[in-house]
Design a protein that fits this description.
215 residues, alpha+beta
Length: 215
């Protein structure tokens, strides 16, 4: 029976397990940084428009017909807009138009003119201070937000394509979720606690085959 040298196999095993134990490199590039900066700038501009200060007046006995909203102005939570398609002009609501003065339990002693206010489910995502009502936007301001939304959507899609290059479809949350699940499974397989035993088993089988053939 000829002796079988397993040294090359052990060297391969050692290199492979060492590679498995190394953490994944951080994906950072000028392109990603530029996209993140562009998106951040657009988000900041949206927040600036949406959260403009609203004229408030001190409530006096001479001010009548005040409608009070409680609890607060808005329900909790917010829907993330579809930045690629939404038109916020079609989702704006003006429930305060018929009310001369409005206030809430969050603003004791203050009133606001109803016709100067609005609510929009597709801008609520960017409300930074929900203790105050939101200013009714002009047509120009709403068009500008639509433009900024397209920038945000474009940057999100390009970043997703860079970070998940395998089969991500623009605007498809399902595809991105499936890709994340696939990456998660692959990362678990490459963890040393799982990948190393599998690799050791494969090497053992290979050594056994070589030994049998050499017998």
């Amino acid at each position: 029976m000829r002796a079988v040298s397993v040294l090359p196999l052990l060297i391969v095993l050692g290199i492979s397990t060492s590679a498995l134990a190394q953490p994944a490199a951080t994906n950072s590039s000028p392109q990603i940084a530029a996209l993140e900066q562009e998106m951040s700038n657009a988000v900041h501009q949206v927040e600036k428009i949406v959260n403009q200060p609203v004229r408030a007046y001190r409530r006096t006995p001479q001010i009548h017909n005040v409608s009070t909203y409680s609890p607060g102005w808005f329900h909790e939570g917010a829907t993330k807009p579809d930045f690629n398609t939404v038109d916020i002009r079609s989702t704006r609501e003006t429930p305060f138009d018929t009310k001369p003065y409005v206030t809430s339990d969050l603003n004791p002693g203050l009133v606001f003119i109803g016709r100067e206010l609005e609510f929009n489910a597709m801008t609520k995502y960017f409300y930074t201070n929900r203790a105050l009502p939101k200013k009714k936007l002009t047509e120009v301001e709403m068009v500008e937000i639509n433009r900024l939304y397209r920038i945000i959507g474009k940057c999100e899609a390009q970043l997703a394509k860079i970070e998940h290059p395998e089969g991500v479809h623009t605007g498809s949350a399902i595809a991105l979720a499936d890709e994340d699940a696939s990456l998660s499974k692959r990362s678990k397989l490459l963890q040393p606690t799982i990948g190393v035993p599998l690799l050791c088993g494969a090497v053992a089988i290979l050594v056994f085959i070589v030994w049998r053939r050499s017998g």
